[in-house]
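Sample intake sheet
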Amino acid sequence: MSDAKELESLRREVAELRERVAQLSASTRQSSPPAHREADAAAEASVSRRNWVRAAAGAAVVGTAAALAPRPAAAVDPNDVVLGAVNTTTQPTTINFTGNEDIGFLAQSGTEFFATASSVDAALAGWTSRTQHPVGVYGFTNVNSSNAAGVVGTSDLNAGAGIRAEHRRSGVGLRATSVSGTAVSTQGAIGVDSSGNVVGLQGRSTSGLGADMAGGQAAMLLSGSGTDPTTRTNAHAAGEVDVAVPPGSTTERELWFCADGGSPGVWRKLAGAGTAGAFHPAAPGRAYDSRVLVPNPGMLATGVDRTVSVADGRDADTGEITLADLVPEGATAIAFNLTITETVGAGFLSLAPGDSTESSASTINWGGPGVTVANAGIVKLDDARQVKVFAGGAGSTHFLLDITGYFL
């Protein structure tokens, strides 16, 4: 190429560079303070034919600076980082992401993401391998309000969960820690505790007496072990609550409470299919009177039994129902007061569940005619909220049954 042609080519390049510098300078001045605009104008004026090399270098620098100016960053798939743009493939938008899990956005600290540690598809994921404060996602609030929360999970579907805790290996699915109040340190865990023991819900406190697996007082430990806790040999702390499967069953569950720590400790059964449930005291109500017309009048004689419903409260004079569900559906037993009156001869009455075929225990006795006497007790119900009254001895009697409470 001749010198003249080469010079002409250089002139065209310089002209293009000057035009590019002018465009970039104008763009910069629109967002720069006045002092910066004056400096930009002076810099532009200093460009001439004799310093075209410096202008070319300046254009490259300005172009680089403009590229680094704050604005949404985008990359073409399948690059990792895509900010301010939407991916068109299945590649995730991530920061420092080297795994292959289906995660929408991953923020991580430490070495590369341990892909096998997670198999849950997620829109947002946090992960860390740091040894000091190793937290993947952290939420914090300093607002003193019952509505304030560092992290909130909400589900708008019947089968969904706002926050779900999962554990892997001997980790903890969810842990809550508090250092306020009188407790030195408390923590709760869902999933697996630090010793690798499977737990449903665990709460601990290092203040107070007793010791759990971490050396603190166990506020609550739902282990769901599947075995009767009284038959175990491992140590338990006072305050533990356990869900166990009763012997011979695969579907029923029992709830146990550890009243005193030890191996296995002192356990008390709170509820289960074989227990009556909680006692509900009630205002005394008349459920039956054999002297009135309804529902089934007449004295009860020796060798005869009578099935009596205790579901409803009845009028003391007529026997008509005045209170439906005096004993609600689902009740397993009642506390009662049984009265006998206008007795003939001597005998006894025995109360049993309504579906019983016989009874060998006495509930109330009388020794002669004209006796009126009462006795209180507890009896199991059948599924229809009924009891059966058996008469024995050599006499007969009227009887009244009043309800003072029920178990449900």
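Comment: The chain has a mean pLDDT of 73. The first helix runs from residue 3 to 30.
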